[in-house]
Amino acid sequence: MIISYFPKYVAILVLFVLRVGALDTFLASVFEHALILPNRTETPVLKEEALLLMNKNIDVLEKALKLAQGAHIIVTPEDGIYGWVFTRETIYPYLEDIPDPEANWIPCRDPRGEENSIYIVANIGDKNLCNASDPQCPPDGHYQYNTDVVFNSEGRLMAHYHKVRITCALADLDLFLFVISM
Which residues form the CN hydrolase domain (predicted)? Predict the structure, then answer.
C-alpha cells in the first residue's frame, strides 16, 4: 500500500502507467452529462429513494461506457452519481461505506467496466465512523467525504481518494490521503 499526499491525478496516472506500460498507446475517455438531481429537501430521503436516483445516473454512465469502446479508462463527472444539492444531514442516504482498496471489494456482480474492458474513475460519497475522543469528530459521530474511486476492468476497487470532508462550510475543507492497492 502506498500512502501519499500527491494529487489524485498523479497517483491515478502512476497506477495506470504500471498497468498499461506494455501498450504503445493509452486512450482515456472523459465523460460529462446533465446530472439527474434530487429535489431539495430539509429532511433525508430513504436509502431506497437515494439508490433510485443514483441508479438513474449510473444508467447514463453505462451508455457512456459503451460509447467509450477502446478506451482504457473513463473519468466521470464530479458528484456525477448523487449530485450536490444537500446539507450534511440530507446527503447521508447517498453515502456509501467504501472499504480500503486492500479489502478486494467488488461492489456489484455485473461490473460494467468488465463488459467494456475499461477502468472507471467515479466520484461518490463516503462515510466513516469516528472516535468521540477525536477532537475533530462531528457531533453525529461520522466523517463524510467527497471521494474519487477507481475500479479496474473486473469491477474491483483499486484506489480511493478522500478529496474533502463534506461539512458544507468552506472554512472546514480538509484534504485527505489517496490510497492505492496494487
Answer: 31-182
